[in-house]
Amino acid sequence: MMLGAGDPLLSGKIDLTVVLIVIGKTVAVFAFLLVAVMLYIWFMRKVIADMASRVGPDTAGPWGILQSLADGIKLFFKEQSVPDSADRRVFFLAPYISLMTAFLAFSIIPIGGQVSIAGHQTYLQLADLPIGILFLLAMSGLGLYGVMLAGWSSGSKYPLLGSVRASAQMLSYEAAFGLAIVGVLVQAGTLSTRAIVDKQAWTGVGSLGTWYVIPAFVAFVIFLISAIAETNHPPFDLVEAEQELVGGFHTEYTGIRFAIFYLAEFMNLITMSAIAVTLFLGGPAGPSLGFLSATGAVNTWLMPVFWFVAKVMVLLFGTVWLRASLPRLRYDQLMDLGWKWLIELAFIWVMVSGVIIVGRNEGWNLIAVVPLSLLGGLGILGVLRASMPNRSELVEEIL
Amino acid sequence: MVTLVLFIAFAIIALVGALGVVISRNPVHSALWLVATLLSMAGFFILEGAYLVSAVQVIVYASAIVVLFLFVIMLLGVDREESLTDPLKVQRPVALMLGLVVFALLIGLMGNHWATGAQSATAALESGDGGNVERVAREIFTTYLWPFELTSALLVVAVVGGVALARRSRRAEAASEVAQ
Predict the structure, then answer these.
(1) Membrane-spanning regions, if any (chain A) (predicted)?
(2) Predicted pLDDT at B18
C-alpha cells in the first residue's frame, strides 16, 4: 500500500496519531466543501440578483447569508416521494453516487503547503496519489453514474431524456477535458497534483511565468470550456433545460435526495475550479507576508490557503457571471463545439507542446522549432476542418 | 495484514458482483454489478502496486465502457426483464462445459509459472527511476511500440468502419433500392 507515497506523513511508521490526522483532514475537507457550497449558492444568488438589478436573498441572517442553510434545513424535513414506477434501490443509490464522487474528486487538491501537525510533517491535502490527476478523471467518469441512474430509475420520461442527454454530453466532453489535462501534463512531466503545484511555486513575480496558464494557454482555455460542460453548468446546462425537460434527471427527486444532487453539482463546480487553479494557476502559490517569520504559522498555514481560496473564488465568480449572462447552447452547437473544435485543438496542442519540449530537451533551435510546430499544427487543423462534411451536405443527407 | 484484509474485501465484492451480473434479471442491474466487479479489480491492481492499470481500469472499463452499455440499454429500451426460454437448447450444456474447462485451466495455471512467468511483478515496478506511470509509458513507447501502434490502428479502423456503416447516405440507399 503506497497510496499516499508522496505525503511525508505516510512515509514513516503509521501509528494512531497519523490515522487521527488523516481522519481529521478528511472531516476538515468535507466540512470545507459543504460550507463552500453553502456560501457559493448564496454568493451566486446575490451576484445574479445584482446583475439583474434585484435585491436577492436578504432575510435569513445578515445580507441573507444563511439563506442556503435555511433552504437545506427545509429540504431535510420535506417529504421524500418515490414514483411508483421507480426502480427503488437504484433510485435511492443514485444521489449518493453523485455526492461521493464529487467529494472524492476534491481529495487530490493541494489546498496549502507543507505543515506540521502534532510533530508530523504533512501536506495540506487529503491525498497525494501517484496517479494524481488520473483519479480526477476516474471520479468524473464514475460521477456520470449518479446522473444516469437517477434519470433511468425514476421510471419517467423527462428524467430519462435528461440523463441520456447528460451522459452523451459528459462522455463527449470527457475526451476534450482529458486531452486538455494531458496538454498541461506534457509540460509538467508528472501526474501528482503536489508535484505540479511545486513546479509553479512562488519565488517572486517572475514565477508567474511558470504558472501553466501561460505556457499552456490553449490547454487552459480548452480545460475551462470542457470543465464547464462536464459540470452541466450554463451555458451547457441542456441536461436540465426547464423548458424542454422539466428539471432533467432529478425531476422526480424531492427533499434531501434532491438537495444531495444540488450539493454534488456545486461540489463538482468547486472541484473543477480548484483543479484549474492547481493545474494552471499555481495552486497555493503566492507571495507570503515578508514582515512575518517565513516559518511562522501565518506564512506556512494561512497564506497558501488564502491564495488558493482567492484564486478559486475568482474562477467561481466567472462561473456565476456565465450563468447570469449567457443563453443556453443548442444541442447541435454543443456537440459541434466538443467534437469538431475542442478535441482536435486539444490533440494538436498536445502534439505541438510535445515537439517543443522534445526540442528543448534535445537542444534544437527553439526560434525555428516553435513557429514551425505551430504552423504544422495549424496545417493539420486546416486539413481536418477541410475534410469535414459541411452543413449543407449533412442536411442533404438527413433529408 | 492490511493488504490481506483489503484483498479479502475486494475479492468478496468481485465475486458477489460477478454473480450479480449473471443472476440479475434486469440488464441495468447486471451492468451495475459489473461496475462493482470492475471497481474491485481496480482495487486488486492497487494492492499489486499497479496504479496506472488501476486508474485505467476505472476510467476506461468501469466508467466509459459500462456507461456506453447503459446508454445502449436505455436508448434501445431493452431494460425489461427478458424471458428465460432458451432459443438454442445446446447453449447451456456447452456453456457449462466450457466454463468448467476454463476454471480447470485457471486452477492449473495458479501453481505453474510456465505460462505466466515468475509471479509478483511488484518489486520490478516499484524499483528503478521514475514512477510506475513513467515506466509503463517508457515500455510502451520503446519496447512495445509496434504492437501498441498496431492496436491503435486496429481501433481507428473499427471506428471508421462503424461510422461508414452507420452513415450510409439516403442517396446511396435509394440507389441500392433501385438496383434491386
Answers:
(1) 20-43, 90-111, 131-152, 173-197, 209-229, 259-281, 301-321, 341-358, 364-384
(2) 92
